[in-house]
Amino acid sequence: MQLESIFNSPSLSTQLFIILSIVSIIIGLCLIIFGFVRQKNLKKSTLATCCIIFGILVIVSHTIQIIVRMLL
């Protein structure tokens, strides 16, 4: 008996993962825009800073995922 048959996990298509990554990048952009608008209105807002940082992290991580999926 092979390990592949024991641990068979269905995988979604690569196109679906790319679409989900693009949607996540758009959400990251929205978080950054929200953070900048909120920071403009309220000078020192922790929520705005967190949104900007989280948005940047989402964009970077999903961009790397798209690049890796395209290369494989």
Structural description of this entry:
The protein is mostly helical. 81% of the residues lie in helices and 0% in strands. It has helices spanning 3-6, 14-41, 46-71. Helix 2 (14-41) runs antiparallel to helix 3. The mean pLDDT is 86. Keywords: Membrane, Transmembrane, Transmembrane helix. The chain crosses the membrane at residues 12-34, 46-68.
Query: Please, what is the average pLDDT?
Result: 86
Radius of gyration: 18 Å
Q: Mind summarizing the main beta sheet? A: none
Total of DSSP H or I helical runs spanning 4+ residues = 3
Overall shape: it is elongated
Give a count of the beta strands, DSSP E runs of length 2 or more.
0
- How much strand? under 5%
N- to C-terminal separation?
Answer: 28 Å
Which stretches of 5+ consecutive residues score pLDDT under 50?
A: none
H-E string: HHH
Estimated helix fraction: over 70%
Q: Assign the structural class, choosing from mainly alpha, mainly beta, alpha/beta, alpha+beta, or little secondary structure.
A: mainly alpha
Keywords: Membrane, Transmembrane, Transmembrane helix
Transmembrane segments: 12-34, 46-68
Outline the secondary-structure elements.
Blueprint: H1 3-6, H2 14-41, H3 46-71
Helix pairs in contact: 2-3
Keywords: Membrane, Transmembrane, Transmembrane helix
Transmembrane segments: 12-34, 46-68
